[in-house]
Amino acid sequence: MITIDQILSRESSSRRQGSGIRSSDLNGVWLLMQNWTREGALPPPGTSPLLRLVGAQLQLQTQDNILKICNQVCLGSLKLRFEGKAELKGDRPLLLFRFSTLVLNFGSITLLRKVLPEPSANRTPFFALIDLNRQDGSDWLAARGRGGGVALWKRLETTEQ
Q: What is the pLDDT along the chain (161 residues), one digit of tens a residue?
């Protein structure tokens, strides 16, 4: 797997030349593998293992020219999901997104479904997409979030492009 130093080097290149990532490249389920602070340091001990334990994942799917996004964590049969829409902007690109719905399920039973307020224009969440690897059978995606942290995801399943 890639190191934070390699990701930061690729980020520098991506800022200058763009990453070439298209929305169709993002389709699938991405499991969070590792995260780092704004400076590239490891987060507090246990953070990444805890996020992996609860199955932190990012789901992206293009349907009818609309990019749907979902962030999800699970603890046993309890599932917390944030669902919404996303769009790519610019050459780097930025993955701008807005979660419109929060859903809490226990097994197949929906315990809560809540419409979320729209964030103000200057607080729209995003991921600055750094790099996407598809060359060695181990697809991974690296990005920097609005708060400055860096995340590395591994594709769980490959979908038809």
A: 789 999 999 999 999 998 889 988 999 999 999 999 999 999 988 888 899 899 999 999 998 889 999 999 999 999 999 999 999 999 889 999 999 999 999 999 999 999 999 988 888 999 999 999 987 777 999 999 999 999 999 998 654 44
Q: How many CA atoms lie within 13 A of 26 on its CB side?
A: 29
CB 74 within 8 A of CB 55: yes
Residues belonging to the chain: 161
Phi, psi of 131 (to 5 degrees): -160, 155
> DSSP string covering 70-131, please?
EEEEEETTEEEEEEEEEEEETTTTEEEEEEEEEEEEETTEEEEEEEPPPPPGGG--EEEEEE
